[in-house]
Amino acid sequence: MVKISDIEVGEFPLLLAPMEDVSDPPFRALCKENGADVMYTEFISSEGLIRDAAKSRQKLDIFEYERPIGIQIFGSEIESMRQAAAITEEANPDIIDINYGCPVKNVACKGAGAGILQDIPKMVSMTAEIVKAVDKPVTVKTRLGWDDNTKYIVEVAERLQDVGIKAISIHGRTRKQMYKGEADWSLIGAIKENPRMHIPVFGNGDVDSPTKALEMKNRFGVDGIMIGRASIGYPWIFREIKHFLATGEQLDPPTIHERVRACRRHVDMAVAWKGERTGIHETRRHYTNYFKGIPHFKHLRMVLVTSEELQPIYDTLDRIEQEFSEVQVPLPYEPVI
Q1: Are residues 228 and 167 in the same domain?
Q2: How many Cβ atoms are within 10 Å of 328's Cβ, its own excluded?
Q3: For this structure, is 102 an active site residue?
Q4: Rounded to 5 degrees, what angle do the CA atoms 8, 9, 13 make?
Q5: In this structure, are 135 and 157 located in the same domain?
Q6: Are 319 and 194 in contact (CB under 8 A)?
């Protein structure tokens, strides 16, 4: 049984990655139902929490059915991050996670997210201060390094463990790579092979199918896998991986009815949580994957991604269910033979 501090998270846990405008409560609910073992929130700005910004505070919303859940924070100033961690602890998550991996320019180039990979001593000091500031277990999500010349992650992981983190998730790319090229898991495997490491090590990057999950598990010995982009609009990836790891069998893809039902619930929950306008807009990125593989779908997709009101979305979902009820939608990856 894998444990983050004293929290049992499963024999080989699957974690939902923290993704901005994706890993919100509506989507987390769907992923939890489909087998995700640990959830992380969207990242939250430390400065926003300290200033009591409404958007940052809203991201602290967590629900009992989601547990165990981690709230993720990011920032570039040690004192601000320490204060933000204390504020976050008041929301009573199971875990507080530090974002040292976000590669986007307006985060990383301000010294936050993956930007701190250019200053490892500061990264270690910041982590130590956050660990001291809270009683909840602290975890870290990061990348291999800033670029190909700074892949110090094996040493970094050990140093972060030494100042008190309880688990580490590593995306197998550098900041410079962003999301391009293939994720390199070899250094993630090297961390697991380090005899001084005793905390769980979770791998992240390019796991988009049950066979890929099994390969990463067997090749690199990770304690679990964090799944990000492959889950967008496809929360069933968690149940499919779990079933395959347990049985060696491939589950059938979700039916049109399952897809429409999940999509309708998703947009309803998003509107209930964020209001109609924001809820509709933030669900749009999921539609393509919810219905990927349906023939001649482009005109229906355009209605879904351009509608500003709920009724046209409901009408389109009804039409999809009626017109394609007999269609067997293929899996979004190569099926297991």
Answers
A1: yes
A2: 10
A3: yes
A4: 150
A5: yes
A6: no
